[in-house]
Amino acid sequence: MKIGILGSGVIGLTTALELQKEYPNATISIVADRFYKDTVSYVAAGIFRPGTAFSGPTEEITKKWVADSFEHWDEIRKTAEASKAGITELSGYIFSSISESITRNPLIEDVLPVYRRATEEELKICPGDWKYGSFFSTLVTECGLYLPWATQKFLNAGGMVFNKKVNTFGDIYGDHDIVINCTGMNAKELCNDRKLVPVRGQILKVDAPWLKMAYYADYDTYIVPGFSAVTCGGCRNFESWDMKVSPHDTAAIKERCEALVPGLKTAPLKEIRVGLRPHRDPCRVETEFIDIPNRGIMRIVHQYGHGGYGVTCAPGTAKHAVKLVRDVWTGYSKL
Ligand SMILES: Cc1cc2nc3c(=O)[nH]c(=O)nc-3n(C[C@H](O)[C@H](O)[C@H](O)COP(=O)(O)OP(=O)(O)OC[C@H]3O[C@@H](n4cnc5c(N)ncnc54)[C@H](O)[C@@H]3O)c2cc1C
């Protein structure tokens, strides 16, 4: 079997490794036009923390994606490869002065090793009038390390990577038996999918190796330590395609994060990044048979639209996509 994966972000690469486990004898290729630092995945803080509105096609499937994902990342975390793969444990607090519901997360409260209400003392850890809070223990996957690690693992196991822009699925007609579409935000154009919308985000990466905990607070404020930097965010601009760094966002992020953790005032700035989260409700993991005029039918498994939670949920949706590949290959899903 020849399988093509369109996309080399966290979704494409995680799927590629999952496919190699399931089909060790298949010819598996990644086709993409952007890699590593040029992907949205690179921008992500990479914390395992889906938003409460993250959705698959049903509640049951959504919960399975989240649980499968945590199990997958945690398995790598327990191996000697963990730090090379950019995966480590991370604990943190989420505070709110508005509502307790902001500090709760039914998608992960039963999945993470610890998710509990913050004590009165803990509500005073950070400056601010915090009335509600939760403490949780989770994982972080830093894509600056994970993407090259996963690429190397894929190549070592016989996978191939091609640098190519695919303007329509017809461009790769006949190259593969099945194509998995992991093109993130670009799936909007490729699939003419009006449900897929960008949610613009901007983050500052600062040097603060002394910070060991993550902090979340009202107004989209988050501080997430990784291996090489601390990610400070953020903002969510719905349907904004603006890829320019906004000095206003920079100032607002600095002000909010430094108010929450004052020690960050002296942390040197390493990088400012903007990314477009590929938001779709529901996240699309499904099979489509596409008729390419005058040529024939292409079998596509779509896997895109993870919004701000693609690092979190990549393994769960990848496992689902691999199951769809199996269904197509065994004839269970028919034309
Ligand atoms: C500021 C910010 C912070 C975030 N923080 C987190 C977080 O803490 N935790 C979390 O879970 N998620 C987070 N996210 C979300 C996460 O980054 C995305 O959900 C995830 O990166 C999507 O991955 P992807 O592989 O679908 O897309 P991408 O990383 O964009 O990869 C898409 C791939 O498809 C290829 N491609 C696209 N179109 C074509 C084409 N026509 N031809 C050939 N190749 C093509 C590209 O070249 C690229 O390789 C954050 C996002 C942002 C912007």
Describe the structure.
The protein has 335 residues and is α/β, with parallel strands linked by helices. The chain has one domain: 3-Layer(aba) Sandwich (Rossmann fold), CATH 3.40.50.720. The protein is built from 8 helices and 14 strands. It has helices spanning 10-22, 40-43, 59-77, 82-85, 143-156, 187-190, 247-260, 310-329; strands spanning 2-6, 27-32, 87-96, 114-117, 132-141, 160-163, 178-181, 197-206, 213-217, 221-225, 230-233, 237-238, 269-292, 296-306. Strands 1, 2, 3, 4, 5, 6, 7, 8, 9, 10, 11, 12, 13 and 14 form a 14-stranded mixed sheet that branches. It starts with a strand and ends in a 6-residue tail after the last helix. The model has no long low-confidence stretch (mean pLDDT 97). Flavin-adenine dinucleotide (FAD) binds at residues 6-12, 31-34, 39-41, 43-47, 165-166, 182-184, 186, 190, 201, 203, 233-234, 275, 277-278, 304, 306-312.
Keywords:
335 residues, Rossmann fold, binds flavin-adenine dinucleotide, alpha/beta, globular, flavoprotein, 8 helices, DAO
Number of domains: 1
Helix content: 25-40%
> What's the number of extended β-strand segments?
14
Distance from N terminus to C terminus (CA atoms, Å) equals: 18 Å
CATH class: Alpha Beta
* Average predicted local confidence, pLDDT: 97
InterPro entries: DAO (IPR023209), FAD-dep_OxRdtase (IPR006076)
Cofactor: FAD
Keywords: FAD, Flavoprotein, Oxidoreductase
Binding site for FAD: 33-34, 166, 183, 307-312
